[in-house]
TrEMBL record:
GO molecular function annotation: GTP binding; mannose-1-phosphate guanylyltransferase (GTP) activity
Keywords: Cell cycle, GTP-binding, Nucleotide-binding, Transferase
EC number(s) given by UniProt: 2.7.7.13
Segments forming domain Nucleotidyl transferase: 2-234
Similarity comment text for this entry: Belongs to the transferase hexapeptide repeat family.
Annotated metabolic or biological route of this protein: Nucleotide-sugar biosynthesis; GDP-alpha-D-mannose biosynthesis; GDP-alpha-D-mannose from alpha-D-mannose 1-phosphate (GTP route): step 1/1
Protein name per UniProt: mannose-1-phosphate guanylyltransferase
Domain spans labelled Mannose-1-phosphate guanyltransferase C-terminal: 258-366
Gene3D superfamilies: Hexapeptide repeat proteins (2.160.10.10), Spore Coat Polysaccharide Biosynthesis Protein SpsA, Chain A (3.90.550.10)
Superkingdom of the organism of origin: Eukaryota
Matching Pfam families: GMPPB_C, NTP_transferase
């Protein structure tokens, strides 16, 4: 089996983190987003990474995983962004070299990745393609315009209409960005910038060749800070349900006062700190005396000083939060940010290498 992972795009919505690393390499629960996909693609021996942006970084970080996972990774580099469909045509030689179906994945989603179920479902209906749909995440009150929406023929898996980012509510089953196709789909796509959602799916739906399979369990696009935090909570709850050994054991960590917490073994946490629920502490982080962390992510090397408070926020690589400071309301600190002592940040998005010595009370970007 083969898979193509779409790892292009500039990841602008995940700034300031994507100013340091391309989106697929940003850590999620202490592992690059894309490695979650690679690890779950059991049985897939050949992965094509469709890249258009900073390919050197991507290649240098990911090449080493070929050996670790016993797979072949081919980097398919676009000269200009080819969108979400063009990269399939560019990799035609690999994807179309035999009759076997192949997976195509957006790189910025988290879920339980039921790939073998998707393949079995696809093989059973005999159509050209199947996409996974996540039911009910988008309700009438949510923004319908963030996702692709799937409308099936009543009582069937056949998709009747696919509407990318509808302006008005059309339905609540959204495209999860996880597909499997027969190689014949390549006859529909040329090597030029093309959107699979706006151009290829509507045509496949008209031909009654596109099916949808409902995704059970959690799902989230983690390509923006607010959703990245929500996705982290969902993923941590999933680990808890699995009784995963990755979670911090409150019996061993005095600081862990609630569930859904990961603490990297190299992190140094003061026992008088209070951590949880829904916290990821990355490698080489330090958390000082009496610090309080909930619903937040600390990336590698972050330092939370004594009595600081961090909630619903992401603390970037090697950043510092000073003593008695409060960082909350979806604040995101980029790489190497220094928040001085006794500063309050609410919804601040701070670019790398900045030093912050006065409070910010409204959502804003610090450049
Ligand atoms: N190689 C390559 N080239 N990849 C690209 C390009 C490109 O030009 N443009 C985007 N991508 C990749 C992104 O890295 C991401 O993995 C994927 O294609 C989807 O792009 P996003 O920019 O994240 O799209 P979205 O989140 O607005 O919407 C898509 O995902 C939703 C689910 O997460 C659509 O597929 C929606 O229909 C879907 O509901
Ligand atoms: Mg996305």
């Amino acid at each position: 089996l083969k898979a193509l992972i779409l790892v292009g795009g500039f990841g602008t919505r995940l700034r300031p983190l994507t100013l340091t690393y391309p989106k697929p390499l940003v850590p999620f629960a202490n592992k690059a987003i894309i490695l979650h996909l690679v690890e779950n693609l059991a049985g897939v021996k050949h992965i094509v990474l469709a890249v258009n942006y900073r390919p050197e970084v991507m290649i240098s970080v990911l090449k080493k995983y070929e050996e670790q996972y016993g797979i072949t990774i081919t980097f398919s580099v676009e000269n200009e962004p080819l969108g979400t469909a063009g990269p399939l045509a560019l990799a035609r030689d690999i994807l179309g070299k035999d009759d076997a179906p192949f997976f195509v994945l957006n790189s910025d989603v988290t879920c339980s990745y039921p790939f073998s179920e998707l393949r079995d479902f696809h093989m059973a209906h005999g159509g050209e393609g199947t996409l996974m749909a996540s039911p009910s995440r988008v309700t009438k009150v949510d923004e319908p315009s963030k996702y692709g929406v799937v409308l099936t023929v009543p009582g069937q898996s056949t998709i009747d209409r696919f509407v990318e980012k509808p302006k008005e509510y059309v339905g609540n089953r959204i495209n999860a960005g996880i597909y499997i196709f027969n190689p014949s789909v390549l006859n529909r796509i040329e090597v030029k910038p093309t959107s699979i959602e706006s151009e290829v799916f509507p045509a496949m739906a008209r031909d009654r060749q596109l099916h949808s399979m409902d995704l059970e369990g959690f799902w989230m696009d983690i390509g923006q800070p607010k959703d990245y935090l929500t996705g982290t909570c969902l993923y941590l709850s999933y680990l808890t349900a699995q009784k995963s050994a990755e979670l911090a054991d409150p019996a061993k960590h005095d600081a862990v006062t609630a569930g859904n917490v990961i603490i990297h073994p190299t992190a140094k946490v003061d026992p008088t700190a209070s951590i949880g629920p829904n916290v990821v502490v990355g490698p080489n982080c330090t958390v000082g005396k009496g610090a309080r962390l909930s619903r937040c992510v600390l990336l590698e090397g972050a330092r939370i000083k004594d009595h600081a408070f961090v909630q619903s926020s992401i603390i970037g690589w090697s950043s510092t939060v000073g003593k008695w400071s409060r960082v909350e309301q979806c604040s995101v600190l980029g790489d190497d940010v220094n928040v001085k002592d006794e500063v309050f940040l609410a919804g601040a998005s701070v670019l790398p290498h900045k030093s912050i010595s006065s409070s910010i009370f409204e959502p804003s970007i610090v450049m």
